Amino acid sequence: MKIINKNVLVPYQAEQIFDLVNDIENYPKFLPWCNKTEILNTNQNSVDAVMHIDYLKIHHSFSTHNDICRPTQIKMHLINGPFKSLEGYWNFTPIDNIGCKIDFCLKYEFTSHILSAVIAPVFNLIADSMVDAFIKEADKRYDE
C-alpha cells in the first residue's frame, strides 16, 4: 500500500483552504491532471464525487465518499475505481491569526499488479503533488 503524507503551514485561514479542497466542481480549472468531476450526491455532512484523470496518456476515473466537517476536516473513502483500497484525509488546523496547518494523508493500493504497473507511476506523481497544486490555487484566489 502506498502512503502519501504531507504537512505544510500556509498563510490562509482554515476555512479558506477547506473551501478550496471542498470545491470539487472547480478541480478541472486548477488541477492539471483532472479533466472532469461529477458530484453524485451531496448534503451538509458528505459529498460523493467522481474524478476523471487524464494525464500522460492515462485515462481513469474513481469515485469517493467524502465526510466533511467544516472547517477542519475532510475524510475520503473509495466508492469505485481502479483501487483495491483508497482512503485519506485533509486536516486544517488554525494557527492563531497567521494561517493554518494542512495535514494531507492518502493511502491506496491498486486492484492488480498489472494495473499498478501501468497507473501507479502517474497516480503517485499526482498524489505527491496534490497539496502543492492546492496551495498554488490558494495563492491565486486569496492573495488578490
Protein architecture, described:
The protein is of the alpha+beta class and 144 residues long. The protein has helices spanning 14-21, 27-30, 113-142; strands spanning 2-10, 34-42, 46-55, 58-69, 73-80, 83-95, 99-110. The protein has a seven-stranded antiparallel β-sheet with strand order 1-7-6-5-4-3-2. A hairpin with a 2-residue loop joins strand 5 and strand 6 (83-95). Helix 1 (14-21) crosses helix 3 (113-142). The longest helix is centred in the C-terminal third of the chain and has 30 residues, at 113-142.
The number of helical elements comes to 3
Overall geometric form: globular
Mean pLDDT: 92
The strands making up the biggest β-sheet line up spatially as 1-7-6-5-4-3-2
